[in-house]
Structures are given as structure tokens and as C-alpha cells.
Amino acid sequence: MPQVRFMTLARHIIEGEKKHPEATGELSKLLSDLSLAAKVISLEVNKAGLVDILGFTGDNNVHGEKVKKLDMFAHDMITRAMDHGGHLCVMASEEEEDIIHIPSRYKVGKYVLLFDPLDGSSNIDANISIGTIFSIYRRITPDGKPGQLEDCLQQGLNQVAAGYIVYGSSTIFVYTAGEGVHGFTLDPSFGEFLLSHENIRIPKKSTIYSINEGNYLYWHPGLKKYIKYLQEEDAKTGRPYSTRYVGSMVADIHRNLLYGGIFMYPADHRHPNGKLRLMYECNPMSFIIEAAGGRSTNGKQRILEIQPKKLHEKTPIFIGSEEDVLKVEEFMAKEEVSNEIYLSSIT
Hints:
Layout: H1 9-18, H2 26-46, E1 56-60, E2 66-68, H3 69-82, E3 88-93, E4 100-101, E5 111-119, E6 130-138, H4 149-152, E7 159-167, E8 171-176, E9 181-187, E10 192-197, E11 208-210, H5 221-231, E12 242-243, H6 249-259, E13 262-265, E14 276-277, H7 278-291, E15 295-297, E16 314-315, E17 317-320, H8 322-334, H9 336-346
């Protein structure tokens, strides 16, 4: 096993900024504030079965989904940890319909934070890994003033940093500032994130695919053929592939990032725009995967090049090992005419 340096998350972030003379240290402080929120959320997740925190609040979020108590705890914790540092001009959360303004009593900064406070939260009661996903941009409106919606509606290409925290058998903080992807595991004995996965590179090709095959009937014809292709036996190409699907995007992509694999949440005629959120899930995960040498697309276009039109926009996504994503794009392109005929027949 390779020797890993004894390196805390805070030290790693600061050392990364030293490579850029123009850095002000604000991004380091912003990420440190996020890591503090992650530690508190991790504690609550780990004791969720012991306290009265599980179950539904009785409310629905902007997407019409029932909101769990732990979802709102995570949302509130991140908001409270991040609103007063003076580094942000605006925030947006998957759990809030509108942007989150920085309270007027606090200084506004030059960064924008978008986040999914608790991805995969439907798995909470089953003790399956869940996580927080975050995305950081520089503002595009004038400095010194409150941030606006247009600061949030930027292409994923403009991200300056992105990451996720997995709450599972251990708590792992994975982030990239565009130059390498690094993972840190929380040591609960003294409350620090320690470097455990340095410079993660996703394998170019895999033997794992992640998708909800219960929706097979409604898929693009090319995607159906691709899945059947993965299930065929061919030693030269490493087929058949194995299915690994948790149903928690952050958990599925974390596994694939380490071992290789392709995660797919496609569109279908019931959900023509897919179901995952571009700004809170797909953009940050795509930024991470591409920084690790992988690929991410909606089937036709690179995810990071999509220009968002609204805060809670959805998109299909195919993300993971480069060769596997290229292969599914190839299958879908070949069947595009068939798909147009298929869609017109059901509408």
C-alpha cells in the first residue's frame, strides 16, 4: 500500500493556494467553513437512529418531494456556517426555491456557493451512504453588492472548486480546485479530515455500470442497446459488466471515481429532461470527474458546457470512465432517428 502523507484538509488547501501568488486565501477559508459544516452533519447522520431526527417534516420541497428532517438540518447547518464569513455574495440550495441572500449585517464576498445539502436522503432510514455536494463560482455581478440570480446561473466550466462529502462507514471529503482530485477521511478521534486519497485518477475504462434498470421500458433505443451490449460476454472488452447501483448519486459516483465505472441517469418519455439537478448535482460531479480524467455528458453535450436557464434545471447525465461514456454516446447517436420516431409515437 502506498505511503500517504500526514496532511489535514486545511493544510492541503492552504498549500494549494501557495502555488498561485495571486490567491487571497478566501477560497481556503470558504472550504474550511464547509468542512466544519460537514463535521457537524456527519455527527447528526451517525446518531440519526438514536434521536428523534428521522422521518418527514410534513412539508414538500420545491420539487414536490417530501422533506426529511435531516435534509433541513443539513441545509440549515451549511447556510449558517457559510453566511457570515465574508467570502460569499449569494448561495443556492436544492431545498430552497429562490437564491439565498447573505444577511445585510454581514460582508459580501466574491464567491457563489451552490449545494445539495443531503443527496440520497431517501436512503437515510436504511443506513445507506448519503452525502453533501457543493459547487463554488466567482461572482459575475459587481463586487460589494448583494449577489444576484445570474451569479448562480453560470456554466459548470466556470466553477473554481467543487466537491462532495460522503457519510458512510467513514466520512470522506473529496474536492478539486481544478488541479487534481483529493479525498480526506474524517478521523473522529480528533475531528480532522486527513488525506487518504491523493490525486485520484478514474480508470479510462471499467467493468461496472450504475443505472436504475427498472426504467428500461422508457429509455432511448440506443441506451437499451448499450445496456444489452454491456451484458454480452466478450473477454476482449471485459464484458459482461457488473451492475452496482446504490440509488444515491454521491455514493455511486464516489465508488466509480475510485474503481472506474459509468453512472447513468437518462431522460425518458416521462422525464424528458432527466431527474437530476444540473446546478447542485451534475455540474459539481462533472467538474470532479473531469479533473480526475473522466468524462460527463447529457448524451449530446458536455455537461459543463450547458448554459443553465433556471435555478433548479434538470438534465440527463452519463458520467464516469472516459471510454465507457464515449461508448454510450456512440450507441445513442446511432439510434437518434429511431428515438425521434419513438418519442413522436408516444406523444
